[in-house]
Each structure stands twice: as structure tokens, then as C-alpha cells.
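> Could you send the Solute carrier family 12 member 5b prediction when you get a chance?

Sure thing. Input:
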Amino acid sequence: MALFEEEMDTSPMVSSLLSSLANYTNLPTGSKEHEEAENNEEGARPSKKPVKAPQLGTLMGVYLPCIQNIFGVILFLRMTWMVGVGGVFGSFIIVFMCCSTTMLTAISMSAIATNGVVPAGGSYYMISRSLGPEFGGAVGICFYLGTTFAGAMYILGCIEILLIYIIPQAAIFKIEGLEGPEAELALLNNMRVYGTIVLSFMSLVVFVGVKYVNKLALLFLACVILSIVAVYAGVIKTAMDPPVFPVCLLGNRTLLSKGYDVCAKVVETDNETVTTQLWRTFCDSDSLDATCDEYFTSNNVTEIQGIPGVTSGILAENLFGNYLEKGMFLEKRRVASEESADSPPTGANRYVMADITSFFTLLVGIYFPSVTGIMAGSNRSGDLRDAQKSIPIGTIAAITTTSIVYMSTVVLFGACIEGVVLRDKFGEGVNGNLVIGTLAWPSPWVIVFGSFFSTCGAGLQSLTGAPRLLQAIARDGIIPFLRVFGHGKDNGEPTWALLLTGCICEIGIIIASLDAVAPILSMFFLMCYMFVNLACALQTLLRTPNWRPRFKFYHWALSFLGMSLCLSLMFICSWFYAIIAMGIATCIYKYIEFCGAEKEWGDGIRGISLSAARFALMRLEEGPPHTKNWRPQILVLVSVDAEQNVEQPRLLSLANQLKAGKGLTIVGTSVQGTFLDNYAEAQKADQSLRKLMETEKVKGFPQVVISSNLRDGTSHLIQVGGLGGLKHNTVMVSWPRNWKQPECHQQFRNFIEVVRETTIASLALLVPKNISSYPSNGERFTEGHIDVWWIVHDGGMLMLLPFLLRQHKVWRKCKMRIFTVAQMDDNSIQMKKDLITFLYHLRIDAAVEVVEMHDGDISAYTYEKTLVMEQRSQILKQMHLTKNEKEREIQSITDSSRGSIRRKNPSASRSRPSVDEGASVAEQPEDEVRLIHGRTASSTPASPTSPASPTDGAERGQTGANPEAGKDLFNMKPSPVDVRRMHTAMRLNEVITKKSKEAKLVLLNMPGPPKNRVGNENYMEFLEVLTEGLNRVLLVRGGGREVITIYS
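Output:
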């Protein structure tokens, strides 16, 4: 292993890696603390016993917990009522839809759970690690709220069983003698009072010791299984000996069992007709000639069997639904009834009536909580011996078992129980018995007590699980304001999370109606299941390399079907609650996104982003963008100091102010050196760029290159910046400060090379001069102008840039003015009209002015200034030439000497310094480039007053060091081309300074660079003269294409 001994610190040997993986244990969060707490309770010991590895198998760890959580209060309290109202056919559809949803979700969950080791955390862990912290936090909170409201629902079911079926006398608010809304309010108040008491007691139990809750779990599970077995036993018994549960009907209306002693109007006693209690209920006296209710008089009293048995054929009658409005009587089908349309119904408190308006979607919302609980196995993943094997098998087996039970009970209830009894939600027509209890064998009390204890157990489990889920979310730190709930007792118990859970659970208790709370938690569970399916589908479609689940029986189509079913059921249950639940999840998502979730979990959303980015980049490659879609994609070239800090931070401020057009921003810099030696410096520069971009709120990408010299590094950035079709089309570079100083000689050469490279690459160029005087993002201009000097057409960059700047709050109050220059042969009045029309079609609001600038004689000052410029240029060359540069200079001097020989012929005598511009045009070489000429000018900011040119005396002093060179310099005559350029620059500067000296920003066409590198210094001098006396100037050079259009 000597070959690898230098890498042992960072790359461990395979043997040690395998050993650490084999000893990995996925204990649930807080289990170590629990073990330590138990050890401390047993007394201090020299060495703590080791934490035991999880030992639960599929049956005890997944299957039975899922069975216990799925079977619950809805099965015992609402299943028979759902069958009676919705019919066997409609109820079967509801059960099938809900069970299919959970089965598809279980398949997706199994795939996620078997894709690697599953630490404790259940569905929250799976979603957050699959879809990212934003989705994970939003869905985690929804799942927490669903679990919390489930606890409220179980407590309400417990109180309902207690007050209606076990001890009705315990009611604080008496219902006897009340009817209608008053009786309903009294029942709800009883639920609120007792619910709060039970919630407080359960919270105390959970706070004191979770281990007692876990130990009682088997007892509660036994109650559930015993109750279901009793129901099936009762069904079998009805085939042989149906139980006696008579139901009394008046006409076709079901009577309250507490309103009669005998189901008859009169009875024969000792050959005498005697009225019954029922008679006295409907009549004003017990005499036979008393005045009675008209419906009572017109209809007969009949007694039917509440449970005719499975062989009675009642299934045909219960096959279809019988939805009721609130306050309607429970009526038996196919029974005649005489009712006068004119007489209003009286004695409403004598009949069994519908307490709520029922419809199909309501039944879905109430029933769905009875199929939740499928996450019980994955929530215990930390306790499983082999989670990847147990979770799929146990969960799918539990869902299969419960689905068979639910579907069979729908059919059996419809085949055994009379329809009016099924629709009797509280068993008011069967002596106040629990309707499902009337079917049970050997006694209804088996179901009553079994359901009571199972609801108590389910409530305790919810109050135990919900705080731990909240604690897991809080400890992940993705939602800052929840971090306090990550703390708890020394043994890891989530004390603060339990307190919040109790408060939220109390909201459900205050609602007090089981039928109103059930749809609420249905929303939260459905949303959680929907995202489990989405996570599996995305991972499958994206085919991420790490997606290798051991569970193979999944498919993305099944996951999408499950997701669609969840979304459909949400809106079927209640569109109102669905929108609220989605609103809560969206707010949490945006909050986490806004706070910046600093988590990288390798989630699928990042995979989607990568796939979408690749697709978009491929689409961009199909062709250049249309003019309407053009926007500045800026490459900002900055320089860094020795500490790798940016020297021109205001460049990023200007870039941010220009990004009203959105688009791409790349901030690039180069580090001198080699990649091996200077990589750390490059990383430091990258961090510096990122920090500055965050400060200036520039949304883009930093890019640092390492090159042997800064000139090549800048060239590399211009060439390779961006990716595919998402490349920069504009380069922003600062004007080189102090370029006339000898030590800055290389800076302006690099600058001119950037200008040349952008011209060749057809890129727009922005050069802000005196960048330090530009406003920061926090400043505001309350008034002022942005002046555009439009001299040559550059594709519209000069028009577009001020429009973009004025979208930013810094420049919003500034007004836009456009100046253009008219020459001798131009019609200035017509130019102004045309420009106003053009701006109108561009939808740009700006003032327009045409400035007339006629060609005049070249002044002696211009001639002298040009001469000084050329002399200075020759001196700088002689002072700063390197060895290689001297060799190149010898060749250039030889070439220029040949040219001077040609100029000494007689034909050259016509060229004199005093001639006017018109005369010199005929003498100029063919390759002469005017100062402002060409259709490829671009745009960039300019700067304040530039340093004054060196005086003649200073120049002469510098030449004194070399007498021979000085002699040649004094004999120099300025080039006619340079004289003309200097003349144009000075005339333009004079006009611009007069009109725009007080402007907040001046945008100006940038002349093209000289084709011959000998004139670099002169080019810089021309630009200095052009922008002299102006505070902020943005020199702009177009990229050779139209960037603005009048068309929509």
C-alpha cells in the first residue's frame, strides 16, 4: 500500500470503511438520550451499558402499528352511517378510492424507504431528503398539523362514546328537553369541556413518561382487533339467529326510542283500550278522543327488525344512497305514508332526524382519516432490525388487510342492517346503542368499550408522535422561528413541542364536531401523501445515480396516479379546506426559501433544476434571440488587489441598476500565476466576488481564471464566459485610472485590447469613467437628467440603457434627454421631427434636441495639443520598451521611416498644419479611421474630469535626457489624421460640456480603437479630451446588432 500512503488521511482503506458501515445503527432521534436517562435512573455506574441495536421485525415493528393506526374512530362511529347515507355502492367507491390512494402511496414510500439506510424521521425525512428543505419543511409542518388534528379527532371520538353510549348522565350541559340548535349546542359544549379535560390528562401522561404509552400500545391494539372480530362474529350469527333490535316507525318515519314504551298507539288491557306513552307524546291528553298530531292520526305505527340478517335481502334496499338535508326525518323506503302538504311538521323532537346535511364529498372527507396511519412503520424505522425489508412488506400487508376489512364491512353492513338504522348516526332509534354495536356478538358493550379504549390509545399515540415530528423539523433548522421547539428535557423528550401540540389540538377540541375536524386532517394527510408520490415519481424520472431502491415493484406512472388521486380527493373533500392547506404549505415554502435554507440534501428539486437548465440551454442553442427578447447579459470585468478584494465595487452597483432587464450577470476576474500554485488565491477571490455580489444584490455567477498574465486572463474570460446559449453579449470594464502614469502603462494597453476583442466578438461594451463617483444602490436622485448623445447608430444601445436604468429606484426620478449632432448638410428641423417620431414608436419618453456643429478651421491650440500628444507618445515608448518590444519597435520605426521618405516627395508639400479639415481629407490614407465612425459603437459609463495633458515644458524636460531623441521630437510634425481627430474631440467636448455639464449621467458613443497598435496612446488621449469636464460618463459601444425595435 506504499503507493497510497500519502492519501491515507483523506482516503481511508476499504477495510476500515466496510467496518464502519457494518457497525452503523439507525437508532431513532433521542434513543441514546433515553438509554442514558434509564441508566441514570438505575443509579450511577462506572460504565454505561451499550445501546442495544434495534430488534423489531416486520410484524411487531410495522404491521401491527400500522393496523392500530389505520383502524380507528371512524370505523366504529361513522362507518355504518356512511353506508346508510351513501349506499353500499357509493360507500364502496369511497373506500376503494381512499384505499387505492394509500396503497399507491405505500408503494412510493416503500421505494423511497428502501433507497438507502432510513434514519428515524418517517415521512418528513423521506420528503425533505427527496424534495429539498423547502418542500420538506412545508410538508413536514402539514403532516405535523394533520397528526395533531388527528389527536383532536380521536379525543372527540372518545368523548362522544363516553357521553352518548356509556355515561349519558355525565353531561354537564343537559340535552334532555332541548331540541334543534339548543340540543346541538349543549352537545358541543359538553364535547369542549370534556375534550379539554381529556386532552390535559393525555398531555400529562405523555409528558411524564412515554414508556407507559408504548407499553399500553399492545392493549389498545388488542381492543381494536377484538372489536373487529366481534363484528364479524355478529354477522355470522345474523345468518342463523338475527338479534332482536326492534325499530318503531310512524308511517315511514323513525321514532325516538326514548319517546315510547310500546311501539303502538293503544294496547288492550283487561278488554280495555288504553293509550300508550307514544299516544301521549303526539296527543294533548291520554284520552281516546284527544286532539292529536295530524300525521300521527293519518298513519299507522309499525315495528320492524333493525337487524334482519345477512340472508334477509335488505342489501337491495341499501344499495343506493339516501342523502339528507339537515333536519330531515329518517324515513324507510318503500313504506306508504300519508302526509298533508299544508300542515307543517310538528313534534320534531319525537323523530330521529338528520343532524347535518350529507353529500358524497362530505362522506369522502369524513371517511379518509380512517385510512391514514400508513406511516406508522416508517416512523419507527429507527427501531427496525431491517427497515428496508420490513417497511414495504409490513406497510403493504397492513393496507391490504385494512382495505379488505373496510370493503367487506361496507357490504356486510348493507346486507345485515336496516337502512333507517344505518342512517341513525347516534343510535337514537335503537335505545341509544352504538349502531355497529347492535351487530356485534356477544354484546354491544364489546364494541363500545373496545372503541373507547382504541380511541384513547390512538389519541395518546398522536400526542406522542406529533411533538417528535415537530422536534425533528426544529432541529433541522430549516424554519428559524421553530428552533425553540427543538429543545426538551435532558432525556430528549420534546417538552416545548408537546406544549405547542396541546395548544393546536385544543383548536380541534373547540371545533367540537368530529364531522368538522375529520376533513381538516384529511387535507394535511392528503398533501403529505401527494408529495411522497411526487418524490418517488421525480426520482424515477430523473434517474439520479443514487436512486437504487431495493423495492422493485414501483413505477413513475403509479406514483403520478397516486399524486393525482391525492390532489383530486383534497378538492373532493372540501375545496375550501384544500385551498387553505395549500396556502399554509405555500407560505411555509416561501418563508423557508426567503430565509435561505442552508441545506444540501441531494434533493430531487435540484435534479429538476439541472434537467430544466440543460433543456433550456439546448433550446437557446437553436438560434440567436429576437430583438424583442434581447437584454444585456453582462460580463463585469473587475480587478482584485493583493488581498483578493475587488478594487471597483461600484461596477457591481451599476450592473445591478442595469438589471431591470433581468438576464445574466457574470462577474469575472483573473489571478496571475499558475493553477497549481495560485489555486488558494483564486478560491479567495471567488469568495470575495460572491460576498460583494450578495452585498450589492447582484444575481449572477462569479468566475475566476488563473493565467500567466492578466491580459490573457481577461481574454479568456471574454472568450469562455457563460455556457452554451447563455453567454454574455455585453462587457463592462472600468476606465483605467491614472493611465498616463508610467507604472500604469500596461493597464491602458490591456484596456484597449479588451475594446478590440469585444469589437471582433461583436459584443457590446460599457465603459464607466470615474466609477467611484457613481451612486450606490442605496442612494436616490430626486431630480436631474440622463443625457444621451446619439452621434452614430449603435443598434439602439444608447436608447435601451437609460430606459433600463430608470427602472431602478436610484435613477427613477431622472428625466431622459437625447441629443444628436447635425452637420452642415443636415436638415436639423427634419431630424428633430424624425427623432421624436422614432422615440414615440419606441415607447420611450424623452426630450429631444438637435445640436448643429459645423466644421470650422482647426485652431492653433488643437494643432499644439496634437503635437504634444504625439511627442509624449514617443517619449513613453523610449522609456518603457522591454527587450521584445524594442525589437518590434525597430521594425515599426523602419516602416514609418519608409513612409516618411514617401511623404517627402513634392506631392506631400500640400499637407500643411494650417489647412482646413476639408482639404486634409483628400490627403488622408485609405486605412484612416475617423474619431467617431462606424455602425458598431457600443455603450459604457464615463467619468469626471480627466487629468490635464502634460505641458510643453514638461515634455521638453523629459526629452532632455536623450538629446538625439529630443532633436527628432522637436522636428516632429503632427499627423493630419490625429489633428482632425483631436479637432473633432475638442469640438464635441465643447458642445457636450455646454449642454450636459449638470447632468447626472452622460451616455456617449465610444469611438472605435485604432487598427494600428502604434496609436494606442493617442486613442486614450482622444477619449480623455472627449469626456473632459464631465462628472459621470458611460462610454457605449454597440455589438453590431439591433437591440431595440418599434414592433410589438
